[in-house]
Amino acid sequence: MQRIYKAIFIISSKLSENESKQFIEELKQIMTKNNNLEILNSKTEVANLPYPIRKETKGTYFTVEFKTTADVISKIREELKHRDEILRLTIIRKEQ
């Protein structure tokens, strides 16, 4: 059964604005390839972090809502967990 999820990525501020945009497009491709996943909407903003993460105080917040099945979530986490560009990743299920 498909449900709606929200993922929040904090991307390193070491990437330039262009590199961040390219990385976000890559994230979208990783999430949708070979997964039964439909992106509903997304938002990007640069902001100060509430506390330093890996000695960084700023980051690009990329928020995306998508619709998929529960088994896809673990696949996405597995594919992205070793990416140095991602400082934090949180995926939550939205109540319907």
What's the SSE blueprint?
Elements: E1 3-12, H1 17-32, E2 38-53, E3 56-68, H2 70-80, E4 86-93
Give a short summary of the structure:
This protein has helices spanning 17-32, 70-80, and strands spanning 3-12, 38-53, 56-68, 86-93. The protein is an alpha+beta fold and 96 residues long.
Describe this structure as you would to a colleague.
By secondary structure, the protein is an alpha+beta fold. It has one domain: Alpha-Beta Plaits, CATH 3.30.70.60. Helices cover 28% and strands 49% of the residues. It has two helices and four strands; from the N terminus they run βαββαβ. The chain has helices spanning 17-32, 70-80, and strands at 3-12, 38-53, 56-68, 86-93. It has a four-stranded antiparallel β-sheet with strand order 2-3-1-4, covered by helices on one side. A hairpin with a 2-residue loop joins strand 2 and strand 3. The longest helix is centred in the first third of the chain and has 16 residues, at 17-32. The radius of gyration is 13 Å and the shape is globular.
Question: How many separate helices?
Answer: 2
Assign the CATH architecture: 2-Layer Sandwich
Shape: globular
**CATH topology term:** Alpha-Beta Plaits
Q: What is the overall pLDDT average?
A: 93
The H-and-E topology, N to C, reads as EHEEHE
What's the CATH H-level superfamily name? Ribosomal protein S6/Translation elongation factor EF1B
> How many domains is the backbone divided into?
1
Strand content: over 45%
- The SS-based structural class is alpha+beta
What Rg do the Cα atoms give? 13 Å
Q: Low-confidence parts lasting 5 or more residues at pLDDT below 50? A: none
Which CATH class?
Alpha Beta
What is the share of helical residues?
25-40%
**Strand order, sheet with most strands:** 2-3-1-4
N→C terminal distance? 13 Å
Largest sheet properties: 4 strands, antiparallel
